[in-house]
Design brief:
Length: 62
């Protein structure tokens, strides 16, 4: 196992925007934007699970 620089920081900003509300159920649909701060890259997701999988992959690749 290779030791990495303990000062390395990977930052994300996660924003949630209400996209729609289903009239029958009241269920909310969210648009989730994840910004990788160091790369200044924004990616959109429809579910929190997808967003968290993206973040997990990004930090594994560091």
């Amino acid at each position: 196992m290779e030791l990495m620089d303990s000062n390395q920081i990977v930052s994300f900003v996660v924003r949630f925007q209400l996209a729609a509300v289903e009239k029958e159920t009241g269920r909310r649909q969210w648009r989730i934007k994840v910004t990788h701060v160091q790369e200044e890259r924004e990616t959109l997701f429809e579910s929190l699970g997808e967003a968290m999988n993206y973040i997990a992959k990004m930090i594994e690749d560091v």
